[in-house]
Fold this sequence. Notes:
The complex is a heterodimer of chains A (about 230) and B (about 850).
Chain A: E1 11-20, E2 27-37, E3 42-46, H1 53-60, E4 68-73, E5 76-77, H2 83-90, E6 94-97, H3 109-119, H4 125-135, H5 151-163, E7 169-173, H6 181-198, E8 201-205, H7 209-212, E9 217-222, E10 225-231
Parallel strand pairs in A: 3-8, 3-9, 6-7, 7-8
Antiparallel strand pairs in A: 1-2, 1-4, 4-5, 9-10
Helix pairs in contact in A: 3-4, 3-5, 4-5, 5-6
Chain B: H1 13-23, H2 32-61, H3 63-67, E1 71-76, H4 82-89, E2 92-106, E3 109-118, E4 129-130, E5 143-146, H5 148-154, E6 161-164, E7 167-177, E8 190-195, H6 198-201, E9 211-219, H7 225-235, E10 242-245, H8 251-289, H9 291-299, H10 304-341, H11 355-380, H12 405-420, H13 426-456, H14 463-473, H15 479-514, E11 518-524, H16 528-538, E12 543-558, E13 564-565, E14 582-587, E15 596-600, E16 612-616, H17 617-623, E17 630-635, E18 638-649, E19 661-663, H18 665-668, E20 674-680, H19 690-697, E21 702-705, H20 706-745, H21 747-759, H22 764-801, H23 810-836, H24 840-846
Parallel strand pairs in B: 3-8, 5-7, 14-19, 16-18
Antiparallel strand pairs in B: 1-9, 1-10, 2-3, 2-6, 2-9, 4-7, 5-8, 6-7, 11-20, 11-21, 12-13, 12-14, 12-17, 12-20, 15-18, 16-19, 17-18
Amino acid sequence: MTTPPADQPAILARDLRLTLGEGSAAVEILKGIDLTVPAGQTLALLGPSGSGKSSLMAVLTGLERATSGTLQVAGADFAALNEDALALARRGRIGIVLQAFHLLPTMTAQENVVTPMELAGMPQAWARAAEELEAVGLGHRLTHYPAQLSGGEQQRVAIARALAPRPPLIFGDEPTGNLDAATGHAIIEVLLARRADTGATLVIITHDRELASLCDRVVTLGDGMIVSDVHV
Amino acid sequence: MFMSDGGMAILSWRAAWGIARRDLNRQFRGLRLLLVCLFLGVGALAAIGSLTGAIRGELDAQGQVLLGGDFEVEVYQRPLSEAENAFLARYGDLSPGMRMQAMVSAGEAASPVELKAVAPNWPMYGRLTLADGSVAGDLPQGSAWIAQGVADRLAIGPGDSFTLGTLPLKVAGIIGEEPDRLSEGFTLGQTVIVGLDVPQAAGLTQPGAMYESKTRVRFAGADDPAAVEEALLEEFPENGLDVRTRDRASPGAERFVGRMGEFLTLVGLAALVIAGIGIGLGVSSYLEARRAGIATLKILGATSSDIARIYTLQIGAAALAGSLAGLAAGVLVTPLLGSALGELLPVAAGVTVDVLALLRAAAFGLLIALVFAAPPVLRARCFPAMALMRERVAPLGAGSWRTALVPVGFGLAGIAALALVGSPTPLLSAGFMGGAVVLLGLLALLGWAIRWAARKLPRPANPIWRAALANLHRPGAATGALVTALGFGLSAFVLLAAVQTSLDGNIRRSVPAIAPDYFVLDLPKARVGEFMTMVEAASPDAEIMSTPTLRGSVIAYGPAAQPNVVSEMDELPEGAWGLSGERGLTYSVDVPPGNVLTQGEWWPAMYRGEPLVSVDEDLATAAGLKLGDIITISVLGVQKTARIASFRRLDWESMGFNYVFVFSPNTLADAPHNVAATVSFAGGVVPPGLLRQLAQTFPSSSVIEVGPILREARGILDQVSLAILAAASVAVLAGVAVLLGAIAAARAARIYDTVILRVLGASRGQLLGLQFAEFGLLTAVLAGVALALGTGLGWLVITQLFEFDWLPDWPRILMVLGAGLVLVLGFAFAASLPVLRARPAAALRSL
């Protein structure tokens, strides 16, 4: 797989559907999503709980496969890939920041950041990890374990980890959801600044309209469908 | 912007190790159950292997001392001929000797002894140490070195006099350590060492007397013992010579050590399998606890193969650490094990590093780890990344259980190959392993049945009992693993106790009831009547049986026209042990008591025709003998040929005289020989003074007392049982480790239950009751399982394998089982205490 050309959209989804469960227990989560995200765009996915935001992000990041529809992400046909191929597709191409940070508790901040680059077989991974942590303001916390960091610091490490391999596509699943308002704002500033530095496409899932307003585009989901698509 | 090289599909082992090492806790937190299980299992195998290796090494290193030479030639009832001596003298110095049963007396005391006559140059290797620590010098004329047991029985010491047969001797010293004792094998009495001329002077070597002459050779040059043996037997093919060489100085001891080591290894291997259950449980818990980490790695781009590599490396590192610790402990514990086994071991064993034994133990450990850890690792690689975002996940092509078949199959094949290759008894080893697999399968089935029954049982009204019962079948309950792991060890305890006490019961009760009290050898045939009169006078109801005794070797057998010449055969037919070496022979007018004629006819009372022989039917089958075939034997250098007239079924359980060859009297009656007799006293009460009377009246005869031999056998049985029990206790300890691991793995769920019950008003006492109820139920089930399985298998071993009476000592069995259960309960409660101490407020905040 190669880096998509600049004029190719970062995400191209057509009639994406996701159904969980089988038979009478089957629940349709996504009901035909059409979405095109140009490279370099910042997009906020808004919607109430249960509207399908997280499921859409899971499908767009290859963590879950759509039941039907077509999906091109960073130039790869996600609909045709199995789990391991999706993992390979994520390597170096997709960075993900989760609400609960999900740092590896047994590793230091630098080790957490270096891991995806090692998985992708990138050179000088340790130096890059240090640089990235420096860039998010944690140059003095390289050897600290997650348990020794505050929530905000943990999320900064998570951002550094997502951005260090310089992926063309970054996803944030309510990245400020576990933080107080002030820390959350600081984190968003860091995330947007680092995105601007790298020129990556950014997709953020959020409940926060104020945060959504900082993005180029706001897509609102309701009951598994796109109910509005606004360019800010 | 930069990208990965894109061509890289699977993480390299080096990169995987980098991630694995960082993720692995330095104190192996989370993997300690695996560590402990491997430590126990590999440690046990290393100790057994090291001990066996140390003893074998010692036997090999001391070959010359143990044999008393480089080469030894044995022959019965005669010294070596001049030609034989001349042949051996070409290779070096000779040291002739003799060994026989004899009687000694002093004052009113008498004792049967093992008489050893030695030449002045004995011992050619090693030294005879006396009990006072001094090294014995030359043996003065007319004196003897005696064993402590003889000194005690005759109440004599150095300088005192005693009588051997009719010959008065003086005690030159008490034997401390006899250099070639081990190669002498099992003896029927305490040792008395005398000069080479003494037996003849005491009248013990008359023609027909039962003695064994042993001539040792100390090679002058660098001759190969095997080549000398071949040359000797080629020169004297029909002289009935038995040869021992320095590299197999004590084949009996080597065989015992080899078999015992093999058996203990199998018991240790069974313990390691139990440890394997702990390994599986430990690895599962570890990976379960790392679900989030695994999902995170997948989100970061790790494939399922990368996950498998990372966690295989972590578990492999822990397995290696556990195995290495086990190896070190095994080596260090070897001298302790050696001293615990005491006199059972032929030689002392210090700290030794037997590299092959250690490698074998480590290989067993790592293969067991592979078998039990592979399924959870392969399961873990399918943990979905999406699990981080929500519990309900559409599976992304979950891996199949079939993928585990390859590593598990490879591991099992490796274990079987390692256990069977080089085993002296591969069939027995395979049988043991098969039995262990069946037992484990049965226990696993039982564990499943208990879970099922606990689920189906009506729910008790008492909430404590209800919770206790629920803990046996709740999702994630380790009931099955616990029943298998603890049940195996406890069943082994019960089995050993049942077998040991039954064997002991047989030796103590049944055998003395069947076996005679005295075996009397070398009675002059003309004085049998006098002997019977003397015994009957002392004990009127004594049962006396006598039979002529000769020794000879089979020269040829088979069809008269074309017999098989034994010395020309590369190998004797399997099971035809009666054709090899010198054997006891007899003749009889009647069918021997207890024997049953199965084919052919017995000779008439005054038969004078062609020499005839009756042969044991089992030997006949093994050797392919038919009625009308011939047997040629050599007795005291004279060859005699007899035609097979009948086959007999022997009664080996009678513990009396049993001969595979019984000849018609006209075949052997003219050969010089004596008579052997058995005496059974009424009620087993030996008349006082009879032994002394017999020693005085029949000085050239010897008495073997069965009582002391049985006492010695019981002593050996006790020590063998101790060794097996020690190996089996590793299985129980491994089971306990599994129990602790299971409790630790379910700790969060247990704390949750405890806290909720506390919130609902349960007192600490009630919570303690819950633990009692749960573990009480489990141990009650285990007790039943262990008792049923252990005694069932014990009954099979005793009655079907050994064909003995089933005489278990129930109080002792229950005591052993009780001790095991107390151990299990103790550990269970100790491990549960932190759960009981959980403070509701603190616990609820962290839940």
